[in-house]
Design a protein that fits this description.
FAD, 3 domains, alpha/beta, five-stranded parallel beta sheet, DNA Cyclobutane Dipyrimidine Photolyase, subunit A, domain 3, DNA binding, 5 strands, Rossmann fold
Length: 471
């Protein structure tokens, strides 16, 4: 029997649920990836690090499949039509893919399943990108959790070798097949995209890139909890983009941390569980994908939404150095440190009084690791509209966050070089530097670096009133 494995956000040839099942059940397995115009056409910036990351990762995946006697067919078109058409032309009986939990993907997959079904081609889907999906972790009353800690406890209780073991793809690697006809090479340029600064950032792509980062991280995993909050320190794993595109296996990562134990590894496993948590929130509350807030009482908070303030935030020109450094890191690299995502999000909503959905959308455009569920969850957490969110009256102070998490201003100096001559105390609130000292430093606050666009104390009071009005 012949089958087709459709790769999407699982760009690897090992520990891969759909690939394993296809190889086990068939004698000839073809592999394909579609650069989906339904997604790509919506990207206005044609220099997109994600597209380049995928493209690079596919080169490695194709080489790996060729080495096993298979191949990777890469297409550019509307996946809804391309996949059933390809399946038919290859004469396969089944299509195998791993489940994607985003509402738009679910709609697309239902369409593909129907179109394939009309040709008597079966469509099989598997859990692969999370440890537990959908209804696998429920409360004792069989209800989905909306608070993280009990969810995590139930998740950890259920975790065992079975759920974390790898799919032994290589056991059946004799069954890879090559298509008879050849397919044209797809380049970034042929799709209308350009190279970005991905290469100069030295972000390693593909399965080898994911493995390199994870090896590096396991050497320092036990320091994770102590180091993870300081943006100038190499604390986290930097694996989010690899988890996003499946160049690593979440089972492998979780198994390693779970078996290691210790506060660092357990702390990190906790973050992988947050990832599962937000996926199941999306599954049980698909309305969040239509802009709904998780807490209905905060659905229509009357944000003033000043466009000039929003632009200053996007450009990293708010006058609050840590917020500006964070936004510039996002704009220049496509990644932002977790502590800073919280600070920048809180600042947008509770200092600039701008609808969290605006920030969510901006992050969605810029983040190389953009994942709908984690991004929406993070934004709703910061804006106090989400499940298990920060209570509305807890408002990050952008100055004390800066003093605490970037005490020496190392991170700020990297992204806000205008302030590099300020000392470690001055750098967090440069508008307080007396004029004579500004002269001595050869910097004029309000000229080389902007004055704060809002006053934190004033805005804090306004935010509290705004949230109270909705209660
Ligand atoms: P590590 O600290 O090494 O964590 C390991 C992995 O755990 C991450 O790669 C990620 O997959 C997962 N993880 C960590 N924290 C969270 C979290 N809070 N929620 C869900 N999963 C988590 N993460 C994304 O992957 N995509 C997003 O689009 C995204 N948007 C966010 C928006 C906001 C406003 C906030 C506050 C957080 C967001 N996060 C998002 C979560 C988190 O900031 C990133 O996962 C993390 O910074 C990625 O870096 P890392 O891989 O080094 O993380």
């Amino acid at each position: 029997t012949k089958s087709l494995v459709w790769f999407r956000r699982d760009l690897r040839d090992f520990d891969h649920a759909a690939l394993y099942h296809a190889l086990k059940d068939s004698t000839q397995v073809y592999c394909a990836f579609v650069f989906d115009t339904e997604i790509l056409d919506k990207l206005t910036d044609k220099a997109d690090r994600r597209v380049e990351f995928i493209w690079e990762s596919l080169q490695e995946l194709k080489a790996a499949l060729l080495a096993k006697g298979g191949d990777l067919i890469v297409l550019h078109g509307n996946a809804r039509d391309e996949i059933p058409k390809l399946a038919k032309s290859l004469g396969v009986e089944s299509i195998y893919s791993n489940r994607d939990y985003e509402p738009a993907a679910i709609t697309r997959d239902a369409y593909v399943a129907k179109a394939a079904g009309e040709e008597n081609i079966a469509f099989h889907q598997f859990k692969d990108q999370v440890i537990f999906e959908q209804d696998e972790v429920l409360s004792l009353a069989s209800k989905p959790y909306s608070v993280f800690t009990p969810y995590k406890n139930a998740h950890l209780k259920k975790l065992n070798d079975f759920y974390l073991s790898a799919y032994p793809v290589d056991r059946y690697s004799n069954y890879f097949a090559k298509p008879e006809k050849s397919f044209p090479d797809i380049s970034l340029e042929s799709m209308g995209f350009q190279r970005t600064n991905l290469k100069t950032m030295k972000l390693p792509t593909g399965m080898s890139g994911g493995a390199t980062l994870f090896n590096d991280f396991t050497d320092r995993i036990q320091q994770y909890k102590a180091a993870r909050d300081f943006p100038a320190v190499k604390g986290p794993s930097y694996l989010s983009v690899h988890l996003r595109f499946g160049t690593v296996s979440v089972r492998h990562l979780a198994r390693t941390a779970w078996q290691m134990g210790g506060t660092g590894a357990e702390g990190w496993l906790n973050e992988l569980i947050w990832r599962d948590f937000y996926f199941q929130i999306l599954h049980h509350n698909p309305g969040v994908a239509d802009g709904r807030s998780f807490k209905p009482e905060y659905e229509a908070l009357p944000f003033p939404n000043n466009e000039n303030l929003f632009k200053a935030w996007c450009d990293g020109k708010t006058g609050y150095p840590l917020v500006d450094a964070a936004m510039r890191q996002l704009n220049q690299t496509g990644w932002m440190h977790n502590r800073l995502r919280m600070v920048a999000a809180s600042f947008l909503v509770k200092d600039l009084l701008i609808d969290w959905r605006w920030g969510e959308q901006y992050f969605a455009e810029k983040l190389i690791d953009f994942d709908f569920s984690a991004n929406n969850g993070g934004w709703q957490w910061a804006s106090s509209t989400g499940c298990d969110a920060q209570p509305y009256f807890r408002i990050f102070n952008p100055i004390s966050q800066s003093e605490k998490f970037d005490a020496q201003g190392k991170f700020i100096r990297k992204y806000v070089p205008e302030l590099k001559q300020c000392n470690d105390k001055e750098i967090h609130a440069p508008w307080l530097i007396p004029p004579l000292r500004q002269q001595a430093l050869n910097i004029e606050i309000g000229h080389e670096y902007t004055l704060p666009i809002v006053d934190h104390g004033t805005q804090r009071a306004l935010a509290l009133a705004l949230y109270k009005s909705a209660k």
